[in-house]
Amino acid sequence: MFFMTKKVIMPNPEDALPGREEAMSVPARHHVLNTPMKPPFPDGVEQLLVGMGCFWGAERRFWELPGVHVTAVGYAAGYTPNPTYEEVCSSKTGHNEVVLVAFDPDKVSLERVLTTFWEAHDPTQGMRQGNDVGTQYRSGIYYYTDAQRAAAEATKARFQTALTKAGLPEITTEIKPAGTFYYAEGYHQQYLAKNPGGYCGLGGTCVSMPTG
To answer: Which candidate in 54, 89, 200, 206 is catalytic?
Structure first.
């Protein structure tokens, strides 16, 4: 019980692991989309970070969306610079497992990206997603613009209405500025495309987003 409690409590910044200066090495191009993994991205492409449990299955949901330029998995909303996967899983970095979604809003709307986020996981579970327990599995939207923040808040309110009608509890999703995104190790990138039988703990609520 003590171990479980420690895993679901965010560390204080002064208690976080020190990390390192070196950035993680990642493949140059996306394994599925064959687009560059790192910026600069083409003009007009927007970026959004989302956390919704294990990032392996979460990333797949977004690279399958038409209009998404590239996806990448990594770590955000914590304290430790350039953390490793093992460090993030220790719950001593404060980071969340997130997906970077870079998308062309002329081809796929922010509304569609956010709807995929809300419907593809259970945003009511706090520091867990299904059997995956820990601070790195919390639900989160990390925005780059005021318009993204407003859309995140608006879709959250709409989805909460639908969840309440279905008898489900309050949303625990955090909505914060994006901050620094740290790429995860290369073997995590597009993991389920490279390992089709790999683990995916992602599960939604079977509740659909009401139309706005």
So the answer is: 54
Model-wide pTM > 0.90: yes
Pairing of the two strands 128-129 and 182-183: unpaired
Output the average pLDDT for the chain: 96
Rounded to whole angstroms, the Cα distance separating 57 from 60 reads 5
Q: What distance in Å separates the CA atoms of residue 6 and residue 90, rounded to the nearest whole number?
A: 9
Nearest alpha carbon to residue 119 among 206, 61, 210 = 206
- What mean pLDDT comes out for the span 173-200? 97
Residue found under tokens 């956390």:
51
Residue among 186, 177, 156 nearest 77 (CA): 177
- List Cβ neighbours of 111 (8 Å cut-off, separation of 6 or more): 151, 155, 212
> Is residue 54 among the annotated active site residues?
yes
Q: Which amino acid is at 119?
A: E
Half-sphere exposure of 113 (CA within 13 A, CB side): 33
34 and 69 Cβ atoms separated by less than 8 Å: no
| Cα angle: 66, vertex 68, 69; to 5 degrees | 130
